[in-house]
Each structure stands twice: as structure tokens, then as C-alpha cells.
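Changelog note: in this version the structure field was regenerated for every chain. One regenerated record is shown below for reference.
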Amino acid sequence: MPKITKLIANAYDYAYDLNGKKKYSEPKIYDANGDLSRRWYVYFSYRNPETGKLERQPTIDTGIMSYKTLRGRNKAIKRLRETVQLILENGYNPYDETDVIEEARKYTAPDAIDFILKLKEGQISDSYYRDFKSRLTQFKDWLINNGWEYRFITSVNEDVVISYLNSVAKKSSASNRNNTRSIISVFYTALVDNRIVQANFIDKINVMTSTPVRNRTYTVKQEAEIFELLEKSYPTLLLFIKFISYNFLRPVEVCRLKVGDIDFISRQLHVKTKTKAVKTKIIPRILFDEIPDLSKFSKNDYLFAMDQIGGNWETEDDNKRNYYSKQFNKVKKEFGLDENYGMYSFRHTFITKLYREFRKDLTIFEAESKLMMITGHATHEALKKYLRDIDAELPDDYSESIKKANAKKK
């Protein structure tokens, strides 16, 4: 039987019973007439095998209420409806208590990847989804080219994934291979959650040792010279970097700032973090006094819009960050700085300076506790690790101890 004929026959079997009656109704959307304060959901009916009647099933609202804008929620609810439709088309039966997936209902390896990509869209941040999709699509292409186009995802075992990861490491780096491994692990977790495979074996695959590029802190001389050049030639970039330096934001967090995120009365800043949660931070006076008059701009205008302060700049966060990174690369070239230095280095530099200043009067624990409120680290342990990584705590000169040790030998 040709493959397309078999697929059509299977799809018909999933949708209709032996009498030709529809097994389920098309999933529909309830959007509360656009009211964001009320619950939105997807609903459908399924034919009860005992009564032969279509019966309404429990409604589904997975993740929908987390979307606070009309546009975002409309987009998410449509994706959820498509996902429910796909699950029904692949043989889901709410009355099947055994929950066994028959061989005919299993996904081929490429289909499994497509299914999870569709499922995850809208559930994770846009930047993470782009990376997630890119790496899984490359994995899918490799599987197709190596004989898994029509084989079930259950036939992809640990050895197959290791072979793929080895090919990634050979073409790029250990770091890229490890990042790909993490994405495939998330993929397999989703497969387990949807009962497409029984276990996630990716955690058994080792993480390859890699040497990450480290953002080094700037010396006092480097910092002064860079700021002097920025003030002369790149004033917008200078203010951008001062938000990193004085408010300890990540570059992408600065890119997300809008005029309305600044509370000029309370001198506070509302920052969207990498998890899309909003955190409130004070704006230190040293930075607040440098923010220009923004009264002519809308609250929805971005604080930084390419080479100007304030304006409409609709593009991906990554594109904005890359724009300023490319500008700063010109500055790095002026001073002969390598890949170990970047805009993120200013965050390390000023956290180090602030910590060492605190340590003049405070114990290590007191200094860390005070700094934790400023940097936004979630836990004390996370901050301690960060400070170790950037060498913020250095020992006192131990020359006298060496002299004493040498004297004892004599």
C-alpha cells in the first residue's frame, strides 16, 4: 500500500468509528468575547463508546491565562486548539483507560519533532524557541539523511543521539554540542509528557568538557579610556552601557526597556528578565541624573532605539542586542581588546568594584547579603558562585607569611 494511502486510511480510522460516525467534534475556542480577566479555553466532544453519543470533555486552558495581551492570548489559544486537534488526529481517546499507544499511532522521528515544535511554540520565550527550533530542525535533517525518515521515534536510541552529538562537536565545538544535548533533552521530556516515548535517556549522555569564553573585568585605566571614547563618539551606547554598569542589567534587559518602565517619581525601574518576569529595581542617583527628558515620548516607545534615545524599534531582542554589540566591537577594536571583553564585562567590573567597597566595612556575608539585593541574584549561593567566577574576592598580600615559612626552614 502506498505511504499516502496508508496515512489517509489511518487518519480516517482515528476520526470515524466502524459505522462512519465522527468520533469527536472539532476543537473549538472560548475566548470570553475578548475579556482577558476571564478564563479562555479549548473544548471538544468525544463519542462515548457505551452510549454512542458525543459527550463534552473537560476544557483545556494550558498556559493560556499567562498571556496578558489580547494579541498574545489570541495567538496562544489558536496554537492550543491546533495542538488538541493534532492529538485527536493521532488517536487520543479519553475513554481508553489503558492509555496504550498502538504501533500505528506512533510518530515517525521527523513527525515527533514537528509535533513538539508546534506544542512548544508560545509556551517558551521567543528567543529560547528560536534556538530550540533551530537545533531540533538540524537534528531532524540529520535523522532523515541517516535513514530515520519513516522510522518511529522509539527506534532512535542512545547510540543514535550520541552519533549525532559527535557530529555536532566535530563541526563546531564542545560547547555547542552540550547546548544541543540540552535542547534534545527538553525535547525528550516533552515526548515523555505526551506518552510518545517511555523515558528520557539523554541525561545518561555525558556533558563534554569545554572551555567557555569568559567576560573579563576591565582595569580602572581601560574603563576610563573606554568611557571617554564612548562619550565623544557613541553617546547613546554610553548610556546603554551605564544601565549595565550602574543598574547591573544584562544587555538584552536594557534592550527591552521602554519609557514607561521608568518611574521618575519613585526613581524605580521595571525590568523584564530572561524568564519574562518583571522585577522592580531602584535607579541609583548616578544613573538617574543622566537619563534625558523623555516627556515627548510615548510610554510604549523603547528607551533605546538604535542611535537615539527613545523611539519605536520593533524587532527581536536578539537583533537589538546584536546591534549594540557590533557598535561596541568598533570600540574594542580601538583598544585591541579580544573576545574575552564585551559589554557584559561592565556588569562584572562594577559588581566587583561595589563588592570590594562593601568589604572595607562589612564581613563577607554582610557584603554578599547587601549586594544580593542590588544584583538580583535569586539565591545567596548563586551570588557566591558568581563572585568566585569573576574573582571579586581576592586575598590580602601574603608575602609576610611566605617569609615566615621560609625562615622556619632555615
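Spot check on this record: Confidence is low (pLDDT under 50) at residues 1-8, 98-105. The beta strands are 28-30, 41-43, 45-47, 54-56, 262-263, 268-272, 278-282, 302-305, 308-311.
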